[in-house]
UniProtKB/TrEMBL annotation, chain A:
The keyword tRNA processing is annotated on this UniProt entry: no
PROSITE patterns in UniProt: ABC_TM1
SUPFAM superfamilies (alphabetical): MetI-like
Subcellular location(s) of the protein: Cell membrane
Residues in ABC transmembrane type-1 domain copies: 210-473
CDD domains documented for this protein: TM_PBP2
Membrane-protein topology: Multi-pass membrane protein
Keywords: Cell membrane, Membrane, Transmembrane, Transmembrane helix, Transport
Stated name of the protein: ABC-type dipeptide/oligopeptide/nickel transport system, permease component
TrEMBL record, chain B:
Localization of this protein: Cell membrane
Key words of the record: Cell membrane, Membrane, Transmembrane, Transmembrane helix, Transport
Location of the ABC transmembrane type-1 domain: 129-334
Top-level taxonomy: Bacteria, Pseudomonadati, Pseudomonadota, Alphaproteobacteria, Rhodobacterales
Protein's name in the database: ABC-type dipeptide/oligopeptide/nickel transport system, permease component
Organism, scientific name: Rubellimicrobium thermophilum DSM 16684
Length: 483, 348
């Protein structure tokens, strides 16, 4: 069977066009930068009637050129993707075939954007995100990976092959290589992005890797925020000895080089001692604590309803908590038949260490915000009303600190993704054949200078996700500052 | 000021104590010690042999006692083994027990012995630090001026096209961790697949003789990640200064724009980035570990990886002492420098 080329038959006329468009775009961007630097914004032009007019002409032309060539470039790029969706398999090459595989993601993205854009005036901060281009691009990138992960992880849609099975003869083969015994000219007949050093499909591994990241990173960040909020609020609000002690501990953890901490926590020997399980038992208590205190401080004046609510939430979360920390084969195993689920021990260890590393920073942010907000009038009003400290912290201060916290949450998911990648890069925690991006980069770097594609593909995937999160955070910050 | 520095130094010492104790405790947990015994005395020894090896080599004593010995506040252990040989913490090879000093800890300047490198820890750490120092010097030479220039150019006219282009670039570099940019650089600039063979993919030869070809990629990989962050901070600070009253006054007086930027704005805009640059050092350390393993440059970060994957206790402790001091000293310097640069801040 024929191998696929990058752009297939349509590439013969689309590729030169793309080259020309890219060249024109580059030139116009350069020209507009030069114009912006050397030609003053407004040169006074004497008019025939004796007045003076400000001229913007060169600048306006430059802007127009950038916009036009940029639009052309985007249209052409879109053309490759559309060609992949419309033309039969292989006509649009590797790019088209990949675009076809991502069809469910495109549909989901289009729906999300259309609905959000229609109702954006009613959706608060999330809706206002669609007023900022940067925010929209970031949101698009993030949602692309979220949908990819969900569809691949839950339904097994996007990947073309199993991420762990090897097909002999495809070791380190370049992108578009056909399977040795494929008969049907259709999806799955090629390794779209080539084979890795163990003859597994690079494309499918990249797609499945997103599932690992999307499962761990947001949840770990959420847990870190729970820990940081539960400890940071009282430290900032009360101050005094509590603040000194907690800040000292936070600085202690922050002074540790992250990699050294990971090496100390995530080795098999330490896992054997059960230390990560005990840390998990401690750290995972915080969300329950948070939920219980949040509800009780609100319904304290209505003890009957409050008690029922708190009891229900604590029971539900408590069961989840107990099944989470009780793991077969670790020192903490006590749930027996009531254990709802078991997490692979590598994942749990990685999860715990990422939460542990992130929470001191969140703690410092929350503490700083609390110290700032507690001097406001509405806090004084609540104190005069006789509200309890926890009510003031959780229902007066925390909602008013949400803007910076949401922005930091996005940034921190990106940072957590980077940390997860670093863990994989050093071969810590997750099993070595796991398809997550860090481990794949680590596996691919041995032969990087001969076969770059197995490492390059996950590297670019990780880069786009983190970039999307950073842009999203930027857009959110911009929009939340407009209040 | 003196009181401030004294208090900070005291906190620093307490932090260093706690951290080294945590490292000591983690590296001396039972499974880790078993691994040490097996790698020293053979991987197939029985549990009883592991036990006796640990006892013979002083690992069986209570952990607080041994931490005190490592610090040098308690006398080192001396144990007469069942084989009749007297071993001791302070007894060097070729020394009789009588000649050995009673105390040999970090306070006496004895950092211990590295099992992996078969050398004194002090020598291993010094060698690593020297190599990493060279790397860091060039990183700073590239990163700091580059970031400041980008930040000032972007921040002097907020919202201009130059600003947007540079800001987009800075966001891109902050979103690219070292292991991604390093892999991309190696793939693009050194691989036979792309064909541009401008640089070397390994920096091993740069340890003796750093050249443009073998040192550019590691330096750029670390510098790029930090550069975006510092540039964004500089931009924010510059943009804030440019809206200040005295800048408007200077402009209204008729001072030219370049002169306003260079003479009036720059000095005040560089205070915040100074702190950021100092606080970047701990982050750079992580970057150094990744880049040194990726480019096979045997500096401090590479030593850290080797020591941790082999549970080389003494070496790990030495490394964490150095790392913690780097972090804490840079924090101290950044606080003091901030106060010196900005007369509105008073340290109390």
């Amino acid at each position: 069977m024929e191998p696929l080329t990058w752009t297939g038959p349509i590439g013969t006329w689309l590729d030169p066009l793309l080259g020309v468009a890219a060249g024109l775009f580059g030139l116009s961007v350069l020209a507009s930068l030069l114009v912006g630097m050397f030609i003053p914004a407004s040169g006074p032009l004497p008019q025939p009637d004796g007045t003076v007019r400000l001229s913007q002409r060169p600048r306006r032309w430059a802007v127009l050129a950038v916009r036009l060539t940029g639009a052309l470039l985007l249209l052409l790029l879109l053309g490759y993707l559309l060609a992949g969706l419309l033309l039969p398999y292989g006509e649009a090459g590797i790019v088209g075939a990949i675009s076809r595989r991502f069809l469910p993601v495109w549909i989901a993205l289009a729906l999300t954007f259309a609905l959000s854009f229609l109702f954006r005036r009613r959706l608060g901060l999330y809706g206002r995100l669609f007023d900022s281009t940067v925010g929209m691009i970031g949101f698009g990138l993030v949602m692309f990976w979220v949908y990819t992960a969900l569809f691949a992880g839950l339904f097994g849609w996007i990947a073309t092959h199993e991420p762990l099975t090897a097909i002999s003869g495809l070791k380190n083969k370049p992108p578009g290589v056909p399977l040795p015994h494929a008969e049907v000219w259709g999806p799955g007949a090629h390794y779209l992005l080539g084979g890795d050093n163990l003859a597994r499909d690079v494309f499918s591994r990249m797609v499945m890797g997103s599932w690992t990241v999307i499962q761990i990173a947001p949840l770990a960040t959420l847990f870190a925020f729970m820990v940081g909020i539960v400890l940071g609020l009282p430290a900032g609000y009360r101050g005094g000895r509590l603040d000194v002690a907690l800040s000292f501990i936070a600085n202690l953890i922050l002074a540790f080089p992250v990699i050294l901490l990971f090496y100390l926590l995530v080795t098999p020997e330490i896992v054997e001692t059960g230390l990560p399980s005990y840390m998990a038992a401690g750290l995972f208590l915080f969300p329950i604590l948070f939920a219980a205190v949040l509800l009780w401080s609100r319904f304290r004046t209505d003890p009957k309803r409050g008690a029922i609510l708190v009891a229900a939430v604590v029971a539900g979360l408590g069961w989840l908590y107990l099944s989470l920390i009780s793991q077969r084969g670790t020192p903490l195993d006590f749930m027996g038949r009531f254990d709802l689920f078991d997490i692979p021990s590598g994942v749990l260890v990685v999860f715990v260490s990422v939460v542990f590393v992130n929470s001191p920073t969140v703690f410092r942010i929350v503490r700083g915000l609390t110290m700032d907000i507690k001097t406001r009038d509405y806090v004084a009003a609540a104190q005069t009303r006789g509200e309890r400290p926890w009510y003031i912290m959780l229902w007066e201060i925390l909602p008013n600190a949400r803007g910076p916290l949401i922005v930091d949450f996005c940034l921190r998911i990106g940072y957590t993704t980077i940390l997860l990648g670093a863990l994989g890069f050093f071969g810590l925690g997750l099993p070595p054949d796991s398809p997550d991006w860090g481990s794949t980069i680590n596996a691919g770097r041995q032969l990087l200078s001969i076969f770059p594609h197995p490492a390059l593909v996950p590297a670019v995937a990780l880069l786009t996700l983190v970039l999307g999160l950073n842009l999203l955070a930027d857009g959110l910050r911009e929009e939340s500052l407009k209040d | 000021m003196t009181v401030f520095i004294l208090r900070r130094t005291l906190t620093m010492l307490v932090t260093a104590f706690c951290l080294t104790f945590i490292v000591f405790w983690l590296t001396n947990l039972a499974p880790n010690l078993e691994k040490v015994a097996k790698s020293e005395a053979g991987s197939r020894i029985t549990d009883a042999e592991v036990e006796s090896w640990l006892e013979k080599n002083g690992y069986a004593e209570p952990i607080l006692l041994r931490y005190g010995q490592w610090l040098g506040v308690l006398p080192g252990w001396v144990i007469e083994g069942s084989d009749g040989i007297t071993r001791g913490r302070c007894i060097q090879p070729g020394m009789t027990p009588e000649q050995a000093p009673r105390y040999c800890g970090i306070l006496q300047g004895d950092w211990g012995y590295s099992r992996v490198f078969r050398m004194e820890v002090a020598d291993v750490v010094a060698r690593g630090l020297a190599l990493t120092g060279k790397l860091m010097f060039w990183v700073l030479v590239v990163m700091v001026p580059g970031a400041l220039v980008i930040g000032v150019l972007a921040g002097m006219r907020e919202g201009s096209r130059l600003d947007r282009a540079l800001s987009a670039g800075s966001i891109l570099t902050t979103a690219t961790p070292e292991y991604v940019s390093g892999v991309v650089f190696i793939a693009v600039f050194t691989s036979s697949a792309v064909g541009l063979r401008w640089f070397n993919g390994s920096a091993t030869s740069a340890m003796e003789d750093a050249t443009f070809a073998n040192f550019t990629l590691p330096v750029m990989t670390i510098a790029l990640y930090g550069m975006g962050y510092i540039a964004r901070m500089t931009r924010a600070s510059m943009a804030e200064v440019m809206t200040a009253q005295y800048i408007r006054t200077a402009r209204l007086k008729g001072v030219s724009f370049p002169k306003v930027v260079l003479k009036h704005a720059l000095r005040n805009a560089l205070i915040a980035p100074f702190t950021v640059i100092m606080l970047q050092f701990p982050w750079l350390l992580t970057g150094v570990v990744i880049v040194e393993s990726l480019f096979n440059y045997k500096g401090f970060g590479w030593t850290l990886v080797e020591a941790s994957s082999n549970n080389d206790i003494d070496l790990l402790l030495g490394i964490s002492v150095v790392a913690v001091f780097v972090v804490l000293v840079t924090q101290l310097v950044s606080d003091i420098g901030y106060a010196l640069l900005n007369p509105r801040i008073r340290l109390s």
